[in-house]
Inverse folding.
């Protein structure tokens, strides 16, 4: 990767102009029909034939970078690849800022996301996980996302922010509307009709909750943010929007990863017994899961200069989507990358981000995934994908990818 001071390069063909294999439709920015629900075959073709891919949209061209080393270099070059894709930044999301604002906000959140704050919820995570799995075992299985993954991640992030459990469903609705609102104002995506109204209601609720947490001197992450807000380290807007960001970031991606833990155990049933015998190996399973099936597939940047990657010049001001999930499947970094291998060296994977934008909540996500991995291996003899229900994968902008609905059959140990 190199910056280009003066470029007369000819732009490459668009994705739809390339000769894709007959079984692969041209890669698109928006996956309306779900044909990119499991996009790894697209990524493999792109890494080999179009490591820098240009796609056409009504607003502006979008460039995709798919190889590990190219993605890594871009993530390490924030002065060339800016996270501030939209000006002004519409919401106080850490992922949308460059330094110095990103540095300041991340330091504030890092002070709140202490090991003590995460440890406070560990017992609750274990208790809730066991309860949700017990209900699934009693039913012989069920739909994983709604019966286990979503309620566990929602209850966990709610505990971290110290919001009443009775408000979880309401907050899920509001957070979905907030994400819709953000996509509409930042990326010209379709809205819901009332996304702005519902988002403002969400922020009002969060600010009222911050007032309560400050009065109660809460030791949860939400309480730390409340105190920093009252100390003047955060504005009203920043405090409530950071809480909204953490709620969305804290449940959406982890919900998908926990569902995919069930999926990998279904594909590799021997791993249940192996981890049952050696529970400490749950950590290896979690890291390989994050590499192999990381739920965040792309991160967005805008170029501040012309830049050359893999022989292609991306112009200044271009929107670039770094395909971190493709990088995690790059054979030049991870030999046999298309296989789930719990014993591989996963160092350097992007499953929890990388560099200055690495996931600040990764200790919490890893905790939930370790608890899930150990629980499934200790309680279940086997997990099978229910043949009567097709897996329903997410589709849309493919920022996050994974099963929205996945039915399984469960066979308990000793049953």
């Amino acid at each position: 990767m190199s910056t280009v001071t003066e470029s007369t390069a000819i732009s490459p063909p668009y994705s739809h102009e390339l000769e894709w294999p007959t079984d692969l439709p041209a890669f698109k920015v928006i996956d309306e029909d779900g044909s990119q629900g499991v996009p790894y075959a697209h990524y493999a073709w792109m890494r080999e034939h179009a490591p820098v891919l240009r796609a056409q949209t009504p607003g502006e061209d979008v460039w995709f970078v798919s190889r590990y080393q190219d993605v890594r270099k871009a993530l390490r070059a924030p002065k060339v690849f800016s996270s501030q894709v939209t000006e002004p930044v519409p919401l106080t999301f850490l992922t949308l800022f460059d330094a110095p604002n990103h540095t300041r906000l991340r330091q504030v959140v890092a002070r709140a996301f202490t090991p003590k704050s995460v440890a406070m919820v560990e017992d609750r995570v274990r208790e809730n996980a066991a309860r949700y799995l017990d209900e699934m075992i009693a039913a012989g299985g069920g739909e994983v996302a709604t019966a286990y993954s979503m309620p566990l991640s929602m209850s966990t992030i709610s505990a971290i922010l110290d919001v009443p459990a009775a408000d979880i469903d309401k907050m899920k609705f509001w957070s979905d509307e907030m994400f819709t609102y953000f996509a509409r104002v930042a990326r010209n995506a379709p809205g819901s009709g009332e996304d702005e109204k519902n988002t403002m209601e969400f922020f009002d609720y969060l600010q009222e909750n911050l007032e309560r947490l400050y009065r109660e001197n809460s030791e949860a992450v939400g309480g730390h943010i409340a105190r920093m807000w009252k100390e003047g380290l955060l504005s009203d807007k920043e405090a409530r929007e950071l809480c909204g960001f953490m709620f969305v970031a804290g449940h959406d991606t982890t919900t998908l990863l926990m569902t995919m833990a069930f999926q990998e155990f279904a594909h590799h049933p021997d791993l249940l017994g192996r981890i049952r015998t050696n529970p400490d190996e749950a950590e290896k399973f979690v890291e390989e899961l994050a590499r192999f099936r990381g739920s965040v597939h792309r991160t967005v940047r805008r170029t501040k200069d012309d830049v050359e990657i893999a022989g292609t010049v991306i112009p200044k001001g271009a929107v670039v989507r770094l395909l971190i999930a493709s990088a995690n499947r790059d054979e030049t970094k991870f030999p046999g990358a298309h296989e789930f291998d719990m014993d591989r060296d996963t160092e350097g994977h992007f499953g929890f981000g990388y560099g200055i934008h690495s996931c600040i909540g990764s200790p919490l996500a890893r905790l939930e995934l370790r608890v899930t991995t150990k629980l499934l291996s200790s309680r279940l003899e086997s997990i099978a994908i229910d043949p009567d229900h097709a897996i329903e994968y997410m589709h849309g902008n493919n920022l996050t990818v994974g099963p929205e609905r996945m039915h399984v059959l469960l066979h308990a140990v000793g049953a």
About this structure: The chain has one domain: 2-412. The domain at 2-412 is CATH 1.10.630.10 (Cytochrome p450). The mean pLDDT is 91. The longest strand covers residues 380-385.
